[in-house]
Amino acid sequence: MNNIVAANKIETNKISQIFADKKAFIAFLTAGDPSLAKTEEFILAMDAAGADLIEIGIPFSDPIAEGPVIEAANERALSASTTTDKIFAMVARIREKSTIPLVFLTYMNPIFVYGTERFFSACEKAGINGVIIPDLPFEEKGEVREAAKSHGLDVITLIAPTSQDRIQMLAKEATGFIYLVSSMGVTGVRSEIKTDLAAIIADIRQVTQTPVAVGFGIATPEQATTISQLADGVIVGSAIVRIIAEHGAAATAPLSDYVHMMKAALV
Amino acid sequence: MSKGKYGIHGGQYTPETLMNAIIEVEKAYEHYKNDPAFQAELTELLNDYAGRPSRLYYAKKMTADLGGAKIYLKREDLNHTGSHKINNVLGQALLAKKMGKTRLIAETGAGQHGVATATAAALMGFECEIFMGKEDTDRQALNVFRMELLGAKVHVVTSGTMTLKDAVNETFREWTTRVDDTHYVLGSVMGPHPFPEMVRDFQSVISKEARAQILEKEGRLPSAVIACVGGGSNAIGAFYNFIPDAEVRLIGCEAAGKGVDTALHAATIAKGSLGIFHGMKSYFCQDEYGQIAPVYSISAGLDYPGIGPEHAHLHDTKRAEYVPITDDEAVAAFEYLSRTEGIIPAIESAHAIAHAMVLAPTMRKDEIIIVNVSGRGDKDVAAIARYKGENIYE
Lengths: 267, 394
Ligand SMILES: Cc1ncc(COP(=O)(O)O)c(C=O)c1O
What we know:
heterodimer; A: alpha/beta; TIM Barrel; nine-stranded parallel beta sheet; 13 helices; 9 strands; 13% strand; B: alpha/beta; six-stranded mixed beta sheet; four-stranded antiparallel beta sheet; globular; binds pyridoxal-5'-phosphate
């Protein structure tokens, strides 16, 4: 146990610090939906409203882990000619105004085709702190491990309700935070979360102190309260993307209100 | 550690939610592939139910007409359900049964894999749901009815380009919602390990038979084996047992649609680049940012932006060659084989026939070509008629 705590101390970085003395609220949105200028404005507004970390989705033509809401956001962003290079430029602009930890969420192909080393180098330069890659399981992590490490980015570990005997193997390597997937299936708002999250978190706690944030399906303050009693953080994606889909360029105020409300619900 | 590698290709690039399901398939397959009882049961199904072994037919009129190499047709079109897809489906359905699964899901392009899966589900008592792009349910409407007739539920996929790749996306999404009782019967030699290897093993019966058949008929090996390539399952099945025979050229025919110099093609080897998608590292049609390109082919079964990892490796090592065949060439071959031999091939298979028509006249009369006729063309007759009709007004 001592070794683990020591190991984690060394790894302590910008991302894990957001969990140090409070429960964290993590907001996801897709870059370029409806435009990169708006994405920049939305991120700064959510930061001001109390979000602790922003996950920025780099849109992909075939987001196989996403449900219809985020898939549609990917399509809107790509139709607006959003590219990885333009997203890096937007992140650099945000970094002039905000120190909030930023994590990219994207699929392996956009990273690999951009050039894995080139991608992580650009992330470091722009001020990105970590990446989440839904189609990169533990077994294939070698694809990015070195590049991420040499540029100081965390590759966020995902743990699913089906991970079972894999949980401890996955958790041992985790840095930044652990993304615990609340439910089976793809992203999307859910009325009920049935997974025994407490049991999974207990398994994780046996091998690491890396904070655990729960995502997939969370939309309401009630859900956020319940989840934050168990976990170190709450991740909201589809509910935010839905607000953007509904209000488009005028989403700044409703997003700000929503983040305020969700942040206040954390216990 | 990364598994299922073919040179630099392959692997298991799949969401964590599916990893245990995939490992379960991998373990089950490792066990049953060496189980004589499983293999005996599968052989019985292939023979008595699907009608194997399929014939190796000497196309005498085509040979005489083209005036070069002797052409043999491997008649996968004569299998039950009309294509090679049944070879893989019976294998996976039997495996799913052994794994205690009660529900099969699958993607389909042309509808042949969906029909084969629905058929196996009816035979073995599985619930069955098929995902098919809207573009394809329109151009292969008859196969939709056929699947429903067999008791399957068909989901029309309206996301993305509404073709095979989107049907694959949607089937993966469905699998992540329900892994306990469900097996995903992937239809080609693609996806995460163990699918490329398992599907290849189930399809390799094609070349196992063809090699023995040609040795019996001619006492020697062919100079070339030709097959069409979508994901690559009929081609790898036709190639596999000839790979050690260095003197046998292995030629895959990919869909060039309106031409490889247009945006409307699905020629992955000719125009694609290295990427990681649908669970595998391989070649894909994509842009400089790794966005998967919308692809096009007259043939729904070849209308796929990637290629199986073992083909990518056979290309890298130059053991196999891949050539692009346009819609026009395929349609001409479709009509040619129908008139010349009285065999209406699937429009997918017509891509292989088209290349044989080019190659045979350049070869000696004592050389042999085996063309894999991966499926029959009944499903395509209406679409070809429309294609011809449109040409009249052009
Ligand atoms: C008759 C036929 N041939 C070929 C294919 C292409 O698949 P593969 O490349 O896996 O053989 C299909 C797919 O639908 C098909 O129906």
